[in-house]
Design brief:
Oligomer: single chain
Helix content: 25-40%
Bound molecules: prephenic acid
CATH topology of the largest domain: D-Maltodextrin-Binding Protein, domain 2
CATH class of the largest domain: Alpha Beta
Order of helices and strands: EHEHEEHEEEHHEHEHEEEHEEHE
Length: about 280
């Protein structure tokens, strides 16, 4: 089985897939989240793994938007991974890293370390990379750049960088949810040894024309069936200012009665409903 992931080597996504999947898989890195997903659609790989949400910074909007608007893949699993961000430099700058002028990383990694950067490196400029691994690889290839990178310990090893500050993320509880994507919504991930923490169903709901209490009615369809929601988030529909869709995570797997009943009720109210997936959630 071939798995596309947000690469290059030693990103957090790489850490997640290499810990989660067994040895008989081939891991194939792609540079951007859309490329990771397109690889499955083009049948270059069988499964895609991409980041969806971080506990400190919230959703990875590119993943959500691509999944909703551009893609036909389904979420077939979720992996929650602890995230530790470190500051690293090319070894030739190890002793004078305090004179660094730029910090380079993925936007989510930078956002997870805002307080640290504000307090300890207030004058540096920030540059964004497609992933933490891509930033680490760049600095390895460009020792002449007076830059530091925010990335994980594996990246420091892979790209031969020196960690000058460990654990610079602003809050201890720093976890990211990665999703496993497949074209077939009934695809089952083989998993023998990981810690399964629950089941989820993710829906995308569009409201009928804006009217008083529309969202309240949507939420009632879940509430009176005692379907617990673990997330509700609005994203622009990209059709006009004020047009939103809602991404709703239900803390149960698809059943024959309750979730289909809630969906029918929403459709009767004039809502559009798309099922992004019904899947097991694992914690590493
Ligand atoms: O850049 C990486 O290493 C990624 O895997 C991406 C990503 C993200 O998009 O949130 C994943 C986990 C961390 O939260 C920071 C960055």
């Amino acid at each position: 089985m071939k798995i596309s992931y947000l690469g290059p080597k030693a990103t957090f996504t790489h850490l997640a897939v290499s810990k989660f999947f067994e040895n008989d898989v081939k891991l194939v890195p792609y540079r951007t989240i859309p490329h990771v997903m397109d690889a499955v659609v083009k049948q270059e790989t069988n499964i895609a793994v991409v980041p969806l949400e971080n506990a400190l910074e919230g959703s990875v909007n590119l993943t959500i938007d691509y999944l909703i608007h551009e893609n036909t893949l389904h979420i077939v699993g979720e992996i929650v991974v602890p995230i530790k961000q470190h500051l690293m430099v090319h070894p030739c700058r190890k002793d004078d890293w305090k004179k660094i002028e730029k910090v380079f990383s993925h936007s989510h990694a930078i956002a997870q370390c805002h307080k640290f950067l504000h307090e300890h490196m207030p004058d540096v400029s920030i540059e964004y990379a497609t992933s933490t691994g891509a930033a680490a690889e760049y600095i390895h290839q460009h020792p002449e750049e007076n830059m530091a990178v925010i990335a994980n310990e594996l990246a420091a090893k892979e790209y031969d960088l020196a960690i000058v500050k460990y654990n610079i993320h602003d809050y201890d509880y720093n976890h990211t949810r990665f999703v496993i994507l497949h074209p077939d919504q009934d695809f089952q991930i083989e998993n023998n040894h990981h810690n399964k923490v629950g089941e989820k169903t993710t829906l995308v709901v569009t409201l009928p024309t804006d009217h008083v209490g529309a969202l309240h009615q949507v939420l009632s369809a879940f509430a009176w069936r005692k379907l617990n929601l673990s997330k509700i988030e609005s994203r622009p529909m990209k059709t006009g200012l004020g047009d939103y869709l809602f991404i709703i995570d239900i803390e149960s797997k698809m059943d024959d009665v309750l979730i289909p009943g809630a969906i029918q009720e929403l459709e009767a109210l004039g809502c559009g409903v798309k099922i992004l997936g019904s899947f097991p959630a694992y914690k590493l």
